[in-house]
């Protein structure tokens, strides 16, 4: 049985982000996977890196989390086989809650370590696959041509390879505001198909 960690950064439970997240949770559990959920808003996660945590990041050394919730988040991450992150595109970046999750949970000694101190070579500590699902309202061709798809660069170039993600998939759903009910359902199924592939199950399961 594979363990899935699903991290959601959206303040509204009635959002399409959460609609897709709920479908992925239900389908993954039905397929036999264990699913842990980090609801960053409902959990009251503090995205601000503490001064002590920042010292450990600067030195590239392991240190304790600044609070119990972050400590639990870190433990959940290290036990996951598949990471699923869902969030909207706000100003070409993840919401502050998700950015803080990256800062505080993907910590030295948890997601990576630096060989030889702060300026040393990074060594990834995680062994997992990942699916990133992002949501926006900018047409996809404009997102790529005019803005360079910054979320794709953040997740697939900067973050996930650094911490040891092997197979990485990304799905971007846009423009959310003008999708019909049928198009939304199709988009959700596309996201599930990507996760099913990572789990090694048939999408219809």
TrEMBL record:
Superkingdom field: Bacteria
Cellular component aspect of the GO annotation: cytosol
All residue ranges annotated as the Flavodoxin-like fold domain in the record: 3-188
Keyword Oxidoreductase on entry: yes
InterPro entries registered for this protein in UniProt: Flavodoxin_fold (IPR003680), Flavoprotein-like_sf (IPR029039), NAD(P)H_dehydrogenase_qn (IPR051545)
UniProt GO MF annotations: NAD(P)H dehydrogenase (quinone) activity
Database matches in Pfam families: Flavodoxin_2
Keywords for the protein's UniProt record, in alphabetical order: Oxidoreductase
Protein family (similarity comment): Belongs to the NAD(P)H dehydrogenase (quinone) family.
Protein name: NAD(P)H-dependent oxidoreductase
Gene source species: Nocardioides anomalus
